[in-house]
Amino acid sequence: GGAGSTLKNMVGGFGLALVAAKALTEGIQFLNNSFEEFEQSEKAINSLKLSLSNFGKQKYLADLTKQAGDLAKSIGYLDNDDIVKAQNKLVTFGKLSINQIKALTPVIVDYAAKTEKSIDAATDAIIVGLEGSGREFKKLGVSFADGKTTAENYKTVMTDVFGKVKGAAEDFGNTMEGQSAKTTQALKDLE
Length: 191
Fold this sequence. Notes:
Distance between the termini: 48 Å
Mean pLDDT: 82
Number of strands: 0
């Protein structure tokens, strides 16, 4: 058995080396993904910070990023970076108070779930609605009257639109697709 056991030991050692190499590759990939996720988060937060400071509202950064994190965690399938980007768009819109931005953020999340849009596209649609163009919302049975102010349109979004979409994100999270998205996001969050 001398040559046979030597060959067996070599094959066993080679197998161990392959397993170790695979583990190392997986570990490096995990670190790369972690770094990318961190970089995306930093970029989104820095962009929000810049926008807030342009409007003299940088003191609200922690408040908004906390809301984004809490909302992403409670829903489970969204990346908080996407929510921060939505908040940033609302800030740069320039016609909303911080309280209005905080109130609109969950509306955007529910609207995105209800209409199967990305958070980014849902934010754009809500901003267009705030500007008075309600074409997008006719599918929900909500109409915007011409010549209304941003404040009046905000009220329509918060009452009529939110009334039609409230709870949609949570409902989506309970579907098979939503559960799958939650798992995917949980893995991303681990990175």
